[in-house]
Amino acid sequence: MLAQHCEKFSVVVRLAVTITQVRGACFLPMILPKVYKVQQGEVDVIKIKKILAPTDMSKLSRPALRYALELALERSAAVLVYHVISEDSEWIGSDDRLNPANALLPQQKERLHAFMTENFADLIDKVEVIELVEAGVPHNKIVEKAQHEHADLIVMSTHGRTGFEQILLGSVTAKVVARASCPVLSIRPAKSSAH
Question: What domains lie within the chain, and their CATH numbers?
Answer without folding.
Answer: 1-46 (no CATH), 47-194 (3.40.50.620)
